[in-house]
Amino acid sequence: MAVTRPRTPSDADPGRRRWLATAFASAWILASRAEGRPRAEEAGPAGVERDRIASIRARAEEAGIAGLRLEEGDRYVALGTARDDFVRGALALCEGLADDYLDHFKDRGFEVTAPTDRMTMLALATEEEFGRILGAGRHPQVTGIYEVGENYLVLYDGRGGGPAGPRAERANTITLFHEATHQLTFNSGLLERFAADVPLVVSEGLGMYGEVRRPDGRTKVGALNRERLAVIAQELRLGRSLIPLLELLEDATFEREESVQLAYAQSWLFVYGVMRSDPARDRFRTYLNALRAGADGPGRRLDLAREHLGDLEELDDGLRAYASRLLRGR
User: Fold this and answer.
1) In terms of C-beta distances under 8 Å and separation of at least 24 residues, what long-range contacts does 81-90 make, across chains too?
2) CATH for the stretch 16-185
3) How far apart are CA 228 and CA 247, in angstroms?
4) N or C: which end of the chain has fewer CB within 10 A?
5) Is 133 within 8 Å of 59 (Cβ atoms)?
6) Tell me: the pLDDT tens digits for 193-225?
7) 19 conformational bin, left if phi > 0, alpha if psi -120 to 50, beta if neither
8) Hey, where are the domains in the chain?
């Protein structure tokens, strides 16, 4: 699987964008940092929603996509060209995910709150429309994005207009839950959208921590992610070494074709592992607080992790041992 290199900002695209593959190429994140733009939050919830909808409509019109319909929910608003059943279904799934996510993190002592303004998604009918919205440089395996700077989801109906088989439905929901979890982390107080330096092992680990949720809610946020664990199992069966946490924290392994799948899988393991232990979860909570406060600077990424997570080599050893126990079914 090829990894698309980071896009170079152009005059028409002032944001800094990075394209990064997931472990099984069903959900990608388009991380966009707006530079020099005022924070829309200053306008208040109603103004934020109105301006965001206007921005999405303008972006769609520029891409030659007209006739966006509007659907509204309690916590979300969706625009789209996709079939009504897809758009309404996506809204319902996101509402359920938000409830599950907020309960999960609150119950574990994290200071998360429901967003004050409704979150937004753009649900498109076809892959062709999706490609037009994303523009040049879109990787063919990208099926959904969360645009951090503009703060909305974009996805398309992967069923291709025909009857939805189990695989197509599952691919749709994994994409949706992965990207919607990103949106929740940046809108509920867990992470800060405009913080300068959130390592991908954290943001992507959280995305995969939420993608496991099933539409019926029986499998919830934070459940075992068997697809990601299988990637780790494959590496160990082949006698290969896992990526040290020190390298994961520096992001480079996410940009290399030979290591991206394992980097994503280990990001899930990192979040899943620290969330399963009370002491480690407490340290993780303080670490996220520090990231949200923007405590960064040249060379500070590893220092910040050591300060709040403790001995990183010791944590690394613990995560490897935990992966082995999971693979033994213990």
Assistant:
1) 81/123, 81/124, 81/125, 81/126, 81/129, 82/123, 82/124, 82/125, 82/156, 82/157, 83/125, 83/157, 86/123, 86/157, 86/159, 87/123, 90/121, 90/123, 90/155, 90/176
2) 3.40.30.160
3) 19
4) C
5) yes
6) 987 689 999 999 999 999 999 998 889 999 999
7) beta
8) 16-185, 200-327
